[in-house]
Amino acid sequence: MAMPVQGGSEGLHEWRLEEARHLIEKAGKGSLESLVMVDALQRLGIAYHFEEETQILLQEQLHISTFDGHPSRSSNNIFQSFMIKEDNYSGYVFDLKLCKDIFGLTSLYEASHLGVQAEDILDEAADFTRRALSLSADKFLYVGNGMSSQVLGELVRKTLSNPFHKSMPRFNSMSFQYYFTGPYEWTRTIGELAILDSNLVQSINQTEIRQISKWWTDLGLAKELKFAGDQPMKWYMWPMAILSDPSLSQERVDLTKAIAMIYIIDDVFDVYGSPNELILFAQTINRKFEP
User: Fold this and answer.
1) Residue pair 19/2 in contact by the 8 Å Cβ criterion
2) Domain span at residue 171?
3) What is the residue-wise DSSP string for 156-210?
4) Residue-wise pLDDT tens digits, 40-92
């Protein structure tokens, strides 16, 4: 596949997308590599480009996938394979030999956050891996995949503080890029695509911020109601977080405007507002949001 000579970063981004799509199609369906690839795509914040392809890969799995967000009830049997019967204990406990595999521990810790009520074994997995990883975080020696002990320790600490399934992938993708490595032929392409995608998304977010700032300035409420909040960046953060798909640009802008009005209404009616200011406020809202 020839690299484009024109089109700048967007052209390179499109080229990397097609290259990555080709590599995904080559991944062995039902293999460990295919799951590692899906996991990497999600953690790098670029899985939205390949929803159909990743679903095909995941559907090939006969057992639980810790990456699709919907673990099956067969998970208990799978986790029990990591447990042994202890002599002085009536039940089973997680095998301490698992502590030798740091990457396996982090995966088990991540999977434990997908548990539902009454899945006690996942609670046990969370407790076991949390303690094991916490004890190991500052004691790593150089490991075989080329990752230094310092970097691996930092990866473990970030995993403990921000489990993937309880975090926002877009915000964590940049740090994951730093740790992203592997023996597969697609590693470099996926990593480069993630960087290009992050840059393009950042450009889109900056454009939206400029639109919102202009709207807020033109609205004039910051000048008329000096006691009210003047925080367009704060209002934009929530839409940016929950509507992470770059194609939802207008939705993010519209939601930010609604959030801004909610904050202003709160300031006007709960904090301070004279009759004249309340009349001015109501007139402004009606004028700006009438059909």
Assistant:
1) no
2) 8-194
3) HHHHHHS-GGGS-HHHHHHHHHHH---SSTTHHHHHHHHHHHHHHHHHHHHHHHH
4) 898 888 999 999 888 888 877 654 444 444 444 455 667 777 878 776 666 67
- Our CA dihedral for 246, 248, 251, 255, rounded to 10 degrees, sits at -40
Global confidence as pTM:
0.73
Give how far Cα 178 sits from Cα of 34, 151, 161, 172, 211, Å.
21, 9, 17, 10, 32
Residue 207 lies in a domain: no
Task: Compute, in degrees rounded to 10, the torsion defined by CA atoms 97, 100, 103, 104.
Answer: -10
- For position 68, what pLDDT does the model report? 47
Amino acid letter, residue 129: T
SS3 percent helix, strand, coil of the chain, rounded to 5, is 70, 0, 30
We report the CATH number of the domain holding residue 136 as 1.50.10.130
Q: Which residues lie below 8 Å from residue 171, measured CB to CB, with a gap of 6+?
A: 241
Residue 250 structure tokens: 């207008």
| Two tokens, residue 115 | 């548990």
Task: Kindly report the backbone phi and psi dihedral angles of residue 43, in degrees, each rounded to the nearest multiple of 5, phi listed first.
Answer: -70, -30
Is 203 part of a structural domain of the chain? no
Number of folded domains that form the chain: 2
**Claim to verify: residue 75 and residue 160 sit in the same structural domain:** yes
Q: Residue 16 in contact with residue 22, Cβ under 8 Å?
A: no
In a domain, 215, yes or no: no
Q: Which residue type is seen at 65?
A: S
| DSSP SS3 for 83 | strand
89 lies in the same domain as 227: no
Residues 247 and 122 in one domain: no
